[in-house]
Design brief:
Layout: E1 10-13, E2 25-27, H1 38-48, H2 50-53, H3 61-78, H4 82-97, H5 101-104, E3 105-112, E4 118-125, H6 129-139, E5 143-144, E6 149-150, H7 152-155, H8 162-170, E7 181-183, E8 233-234, E9 237-238, H9 239-282, H10 307-310, H11 322-328, E10 333-334, H12 340-358, H13 360-375, H14 387-391, H15 397-409, E11 414-422, H16 442-456, H17 467-470, E12 483-484, H18 502-511, H19 526-529, E13 530-531, E14 547-554, H20 560-588, E15 590-595, H21 599-632, H22 644-650, E16 658-660, H23 670-679, H24 683-706, H25 713-745, H26 789-817, H27 824-844, H28 847-860, E17 885-887, H29 889-902, H30 905-926, H31 945-955, E18 961-967, H32 974-980, H33 992-1000, H34 1003-1006, H35 1015-1022, E19 1032-1034, E20 1051-1053, H36 1072-1083, H37 1095-1099, E21 1103-1105, E22 1110-1118, H38 1125-1146, E23 1149-1153, H39 1157-1160, H40 1162-1189, H41 1192-1216, H42 1222-1248, E24 1253-1254, H43 1261-1294, H44 1300-1332, H45 1343-1355
Parallel strand pairs: 4-7
Antiparallel strand pairs: 1-2, 3-4, 5-6, 8-9, 10-24, 11-14, 11-15, 12-14, 13-14, 16-17, 18-22, 18-23, 19-20, 21-22
Helix pairs in contact: 1-3, 3-4, 4-6, 6-8, 9-30, 11-45, 12-26, 12-28, 13-24, 13-28, 16-20, 21-24, 21-25, 21-43, 24-25, 24-27, 24-28, 25-26, 25-27, 25-42, 25-43, 26-27, 26-28, 26-40, 26-42, 27-42, 29-43, 30-41, 30-44, 40-41, 40-42, 41-42, 41-44, 42-43, 42-44, 43-44
Length: about 1350
């Protein structure tokens, strides 16, 4: 039924389909008609403009009235942009009334209406491409602030091009759709509607739109760099990595070349020396007497070895190497110089040890009283579980902003969220979609609607709260709950739909959310209720969604009683959803992933309880190992040690102890076994040492609890580990040193250590104090008198006390400096760690010394270890039964194999090169350390929250909401309004709204995904008199506002008669009290179909009002979907950058707020915190070690090795996927402390080792090698068995955990720091000390002890100084 030009195609109304449906146009193949009367012309002019009013038209007054009504509905959405509004009006006015209507419209089918008339059923509307694109472009960027969405979502179904836009408007659909089908055929040679559509960037006021709706008119924001990524790259690696690799390669090449040249030159010199010696031999020249030969390696150890030695019998001349030779020739050597500070420290510890050993029970009583008093602080014990107060400093800007937001706008909502997805098909099964099946179906929809009904009726126990009692109601207490569910599109009831019609409703509501408003009055877009939507332009893509998303919004409150209501209902909801999830698979073939407001805290606590069992088991295993190791040690060697069964039983216990060789035949008996097992055991002493570790932690908790420092879960899990590592090492070296004192001065000490072979004493001694000159000119009896137990204990404390002081003081200061970090979790840990280490060391040099004395007395009195009341008869000891001392297994290994091998020049070179390479690799790896802590790691692996968080990452189409809060801005005056508005021509170019819109356009950098919800723009648009259904006042009394129940005939638009009238320039718009009067009314106006711009639902909580103004307001938008920790960190940083930019440009104060910000602020400065705390710790290590060791050179070496240990641990973090966060930062501080423990004892032994040094050697390499050898032999076994083995055993238990958090941040990091600490402390440190260590000092004050050390060193001399005959008796 084609029409000719100048004629109409449709005109007038011919009834409706149903009784109450919209009117349908009549087919009309006739000419246009003149306006019927002046009223029609006036109406036509007001609706379509003067152009059509002055010519014949193809429409009637009734049609124009219907058009006006439809425009009123649409303009609440599009009126903010004049170009879009006027194009929309012109498009439909020409469609309805154009006198040339027949040129571009063809009726294609008709239908009979309810009145029996013939009406249009479908028609073709030909639109030129230029005109269609112009119309679409003018509207595509227009925003609808209340939903953070676009007007195109409502008028065009979210169309992405003009064809889809026109198709959506032409589809037969109620609401903003057409009452009949309008088809838009593709452009052809037929005449089409063609005119220039208005552009939003045109200069005239009838076209020009604001920046927020028209990007072309926006001021260009300054460019910003990408939020992440290295600044300098060479190929695929960073510039730093390239420089490190290049430097290491060059250094190693030069080193190998230099080493090769030196080796060649040394070989040449050796050949020349050999030729010279051959020449001297031919001339009859003989070597000098060995005693007088100087400067030859091993020249002073050419002692004769008799036949008895080869058979293993003791001999007076056995091992008389360099040490005894030096005694015979006083000009050959001299006592090393003493260090005054160390002498004073040693004297202090001698007196302390003597006092505690002389009065052990009094010491224990005093220590118990001291501990009891400090433990009274437990009465104020409190555990900090609030994550905000735990991880966020009290003065944190983000924390203060959160508190401000909660105070002025209320706490953020509690969310209960559910994801419904199809069960994945079995592996190998081919599906229609070659992947996940769509979740939507009629059966699933019906099943879920029943569940939603159950949830609405769910009552909590015991108080019977329902969803309506706790939910968020934007329309007030009597309003509807916010439930974001696909069920809201069906009015929460499927009775009006069936298996054939539900899909159409889904497509309608997804395309036009405003047509399916839920009961709480805000449009519900598809991104809120559907997930996993395919990337497609098909309008049916919504039906292929992989997940349904349901969110219940529950009010939170600062009132604890109100919060308790919500938590009680959430507990009931959690139990119900658990039951639903268990049967969902069988009933509908779907999976349910869910979370409630209480879920995360409950699951983390459950994970902590699981972790505690593993951690406790780890500690128990370490306790058992320590008790067995110390308990197996023996201070008095037994002749029956060589019995194989006893050797196997006691091997672990002898790892670090000194035992005695015996040449007598074995006479094993059960009495011998009983004595070895029961008397010489130190099991109770080991348990007491462990008890002191526990007591030191408990006392530290009591002390700091009294001071108001709360305990955290990290402290509970980590501090015992740290104190155990430090304390056990101190216990081991004290027991080890006491065993050495017993072997020298105990009842079973061998005679040759105190006598010559003839029985004449080398140097008589009095046993009062080793620090006073006590030589006697009278010869004493050859009968050896052992030192009292108290004296031996005092000497052991004097020997090892300075070493304990060095390690403990260094660690205490290093940890205490960590308290300068503002993060409460790290600060509290640092305080507790410092206190525990200090108190542990204090108890070890007092209470443990007292226990050591008591245990020594018990053993020498032949009393059973665990039953001291039981005494075993003393065996008869023959005068000739004295045995020569020989070291334990680890000590012998250190002396004879490890130390000599390590101190070879070639091995030193290899060690330095290897650790330099390790350092280079660590520096490269550190660059790959990620920031953050995935909350899934804190959950049990079987937690129901794990699939929930996976579903968020996989299906959620929108990121977290973010609020930009504006304060200190007076919006009742024009300048304040221009700082925040966006839709008016006089708004600041970089106003808050314009800036947010500009940032949204570069979402890859700003992480802003949605248009901002600008309350100011919607408020002033609510005043627009063209939108007659919004702001209304009584005609009779304009001071009284109309409500939704007031009849329309009694009301008029607020600004109908106002002068100056409403305009987009803000000229004459409300200010001051007039502004506040209208604002208060707007905030109580409902958001409904009549007026979507009402402020109650969308903005009811967006403003904080005072009596005369607006104190603060927020502007809501959304982040892009955040999938990783980097996304969250970058989103937080970007939001702060944006807020700072807005504040600087407008002169107001703006800050961003989102729920996760307060937890991610730490990552903005955690790198600086890490550098500060580790830098301060290393500085403390440098100062303390340099002062107490008496050598800045050695202190610098120790500090460097400790730093390398920490760097190595950080390098492994980059490789092993360990992120940097507060937990790993605490572990890095621990690694610094453990590294100090590994290094300090070795360094102290190195500095104090110096018996029998050749006077002309000074601080030569040979002399340093000797001291390194002695240090490794002295304390190396204790360090290895006291820390390394203990912790490795504990770590092996942690490997059994099912907690990813425990595995990654405890097992992996602690295993790394123990292995790294052992390697650096026992391999690298000795090598560097042998190359550049400082000069040693004499550790004692009187010649007798020095001579005893010299004699002892003659038997346990560093291998390079001994001849082959010195190893005649290897055992």
């Amino acid at each position: 039924m084609a029409s000719t030009p100048g004629k109409c195609a449709i005109r007038g109304s011919c009834g409706s389909k149903g009784r109450f449906g919209p009117q349908l146009p009549c087919p009309y193949d006739g000419p246009p008609q003149e306006a019927e009367d002046d009223d029609f012309k006036t109406l036509l002019t007001s609706v379509c403009g003067s152009e059509l009013a002055n010519s014949p038209v193809c429409c009637t007054a009734e049609q124009v009235q219907t058009l006006q009504s439809n425009f009123q509905q649409a303009e609440t959405i599009i009126s903010s942009c004049p170009a879009c509004r006027n194009n929309f009006r012109e498009f439909y006015c020409k469609f309805t009334c154009s006198p040339n209507q027949g040129d571009f419209i063809s009726v294609t089918s008709t239908q009979t209406t309810s009145t029996g008339e013939t009406a249009v059923k479908s028609l073709d509307f030909r639109v030129a491409e230029r005109m269609g694109e112009g119309f679409f472009d003018s509207c595509k960027n227009v925003k609808f602030s209340a939903t953070n969405g676009y007007a195109m979502d409502f008028i065009g179904g979210g169309a992405k091009n003009y064809s889809a836009f026109l198709q959506y408007m032409g589809d037969e659909r109620p609401g903003l759709g057409s009452p009949f089908q309008i088809n838009f055929p593709a452009p052809s040679d037929k005449t089409a509607l063609d005119y220039r559509a208005r552009d939003c960037s045109d200069s005239d006021l009838g076209s020009r739109c604001a920046c927020i709706d028209c990007p072309n008119v926006c001021a260009v924001l300054p460019p910003i760099p990408a939020p992440a990524g290295p600044h300098c790259q060479i190929g695929s690696i960073t510039c730093l990595s390239f420089v490190v690799i290049l430097a290491y390669t060059v250094a190693v090449t030069c080193f190998i070349t230099g080493f090769g040249i030196l080796a060649w030159r040394r070989k040449q010199k050796t050949s020349e020396r050999a030729r010279l010696l051959d020449s001297n031999s031919l001339n009859g020249i003989t070597a000098a007497d060995p005693v007088n030969r100087h400067g030859l390696v091993g020249a002073s150890s050419l002692a004769q070895v008799d036949a008895d030695q080869s058979s293993g019998a003791p001999s007076d001349s056995r091992g008389l190497g360099r040490g005894l030779q030096n005694l015979i020739n006083p000009f050959e050597s001299s006592s090393p110089p003493s260090d005054r500070l160390n002498t004073k420290i040693r004297r202090f510890f001698y007196r302390l040890g003597s006092l505690c050993a002389s009065y052990p029970w009094l010491t224990l009583a005093a220590a118990s009283a001291f501990v009891a008093v400090l433990n009274l602080g437990w009465t104020r014990f409190a555990v900090e579980v609030d994550p905000v107060r735990l991880w966020v400093p009290p003065t944190s800007e983000t924390k203060l902003q959160k508190e401000y937001f909660d105070e002025h706008f209320g706490p953020f909502y509690r969310t209960e969220q559910v994801f419904i997805t199809r069960i994945p098909p079995p592996e190998g099964e081919v599906t229609k979609t070659n992947g996940e099946e769509p979740v939507l179906s009629w059966d699933v929809l019906k099943w879920w609607m029943d569940i939603e009904e159950d949830i609405r009726n769910l009552k909590s126990t015991p108080n019977g709260y329902t969803l309506h009692d706790v939910c968020f109601k934007p329309a007030g207490p009597r309003g509807a709950c916010v439930v974001q569910s696909i069920g809201a599109w069906f009015g929460n009831d499927l009775d009006g739909w069936d298996p054939d019609t539900w899909e159409e409703q889904v497509l309608t509501c997804a395309s036009n959310p405003s047509a399916c408003l839920p009961d709480y009055g805000q449009p519900l877009g598809p991104k809120y209720v559907l997930g996993g939507i395919p990337e497609s332009s098909s309008p049916k893509r919504w039906l292929d969604a992989k997940a349904m998303v349901v969110t219940y919004v529950v009010s939170d409150s600062n009132d604890l009683d109100e919060r308790a209501k919500a938590e009680e209902w959430e507990q009931e909801l959690k139990l119900y959803l658990h039951r639903v999830a268990n049967k969902a698979s069988a009933e509908q073939g779907v999976d349910i992933a869910y979370s409630t407001g209480i879920s995360l805290e409950e699951e983390i606590n459950q994970s902590t309880n699981t972790d505690v069992r593993i951690v406790v088991l780890s500690y128990l295993v370490m306790f058992l190992y320590i008790s067995m190791t110390l308990g197996g040690g023996s201070s008095a060697p037994d002749p029956d040690e060589k019995n194989v069964s006893i050797l196997l039983r006691k091997w672990v216990g002898r790892l670090s102890g000194v035992v005695v060789d015996d040449s007598r035949p074995s006479s094993f008996s059960f009495r011998t076994l009983s004595r070895r097992t029961l008397v010489q055991s130190k099991f109770m002493l080991g348990l007491f040492g462990i008890l002191l570790v526990i007591v030191s932690v408990s006392t530290s908790v009591g002390l700091f609890s009294f001071l108001g420092v709360k305990v955290t879960l990290i402290i509970a899990e980590v501090i015992p580990f740290l104190v155990l590592a430090v304390g056990v090492d101190n216990v081991f070296i004290l027991v080890h040193e006491l065993d050495r004192q017993n072997s020298l001065h105990g009842p079973n000490a061998p005679l040759h250590l105190n006598e010559t072979s003839e029985g004449a004493p080398i140097s008589p001694a009095s046993y009062r104090s080793p620090f006073e000159s006590q030589h006697s000119g009278d010869a004493e009896s050859a009968t050896r008198t052992p030192l009292p137990a108290e004296e031996r204990v005092a000497r052991a404390v004097a020997k090892m006390g300075p070493s304990i002081l060095l390690s403990s003081l260094t660690e205490t200061i290093a940890f205490a400096l960590g308290a300068l970090v503002p993060m409460p979790a790290v600060r509290n840990f640092a305080l507790y760690a410092a206190g525990s280490v200090f108190l542990g060391a204090l108890l070890q040099v007092t209470a443990f010394v007292a226990a050591l004395t008591i245990d020594l007395r018990r053993e020498e009195d032949n009393r059973v270890d665990c039953l001291p009341c039981v005494k075993i008869p003393q065996r008869i000891a023959l005068p000739t039964s004295h045995s020569s001392p020989r070291p334990g297994v680890l000590t012998r290994f250190m002396q004879k194999y490890y130390a000599p091998f390590l101190l070879k020049d070639s091995v030193k070179s290899a060690v330095v090169a290897a650790f330099a390479g390790l350092f280079a690799a660590s520096v490269i790896s550190i660059q790959h350390i990620q920031l953050g802590l995935d909350q899934r790691l804190a959950l049990p692996s079987t937690s129901y929250l794990v699939p929930y968080f996976d579903a968020i990452d996989k299906y959620l189409e929108i990121g977290p909401p973010v609020y930009f809060v504006s304060t200190e801005n007076n919006v009742t005056v024009r300048t304040g309004q221009q700082h925040v508005c966006g839709r008016f021509t006089t708004c600041d170019d970089f106003s808050l709204i314009n800036t947010l819109e500009g940032e949204r356009n570069r979402a890859e950098w700003s992480f802003i995904a949605e248009p901002p919800a600008g309350w100011f723009d919607d408020f002033f648009r609510w005043l627009d008199p063209q939108i007659e259904s919004c702001c209304r006042v009584r005609k009779a009394d304009p001071s009284v506002f109309c409500t939704s129940r007031t009849p329309a005939r009694l009301c008029k638009p607020c600004f109908e008669d106002r002068r100056p009238e409403w305009n987009i320039t803000l000229h004459g718009m409300p200010e001051g009290q007039e502004f506040m009067r209208y604002l208060r009314q707007w905030l109580v106006s409902p958001t409904d179909d009549e007026c979507p711009l009402g402020g109650m639902a969308a903005y009811g909580s967006a403003l904080s009002l005072t009596d005369d103004g607006v104190e603060a307001s927020h502007f809501r938008t959304f982040h892009t979907p955040l999938k990783s920790q980097d996304d969250y960190i970058n989103a937080f940083a970007s939001a702060n950058r944006i807020a700072n930019d807005i504040s600087a440009r407008t002169g107001t104060k703006v800050f961003p707020y989102s729920l996760f910000y307060v937890f991610f602020e730490q990552y903005i400065y955690i790198i600086n915190i890490t550098q500060s705390i580790l830098g301060l710790g290393l500085a403390a290590v440098l100062v303390v070690t340099s002062v107490l060791l008496g050598s800045w050179r050695t202190g610098t070496i120790v500090t460097g090795v400790v730093g390398l240990t920490v760097v190595n641990v950080m390098g492994v973090m980059g490789i092993w996927g360990i992120s940097l966060n507060a937990i790993s930062l605490v572990n890095l501080v621990i690694s610094l402390g453990i590294a100090v423990e590994f290094c300090s004892h070795i360094a102290r032994a190195f500095m104090s080792s110096g018996p029998g040094l050749p006077a002309d050697d000074g601080n030569s390499p040979k002399e340093r090698n000797g001291r390194v050898w002695a240090a490794l032999a002295d304390v190396g076994p204790s360090v290895l068995s006291g820390i390394t083995f203990t912790k490795l055993i504990g770590m092996s238990v942690l490997a059994l955990t099912r907690s990813k958090l425990l595995e990654i941040y405890y097992f992996r990091m602690w295993l790394t720091l123990i292995i790294s600490g052992a390697l650096h402390g026992l391999v690298l440190l000795p090598v560097v000390l042998s190359l550049a260590g400082g000069p040693g000092f004499r550790d004692v004050d009187e010649d007798e002890e020095w001579m005893a050390n010299a004699i002892r060193s003659a038997d346990q001399e560093y291998a390079p100084f001994r001849t082959s005959s010195d190893f005649g008796d290897s055992d």
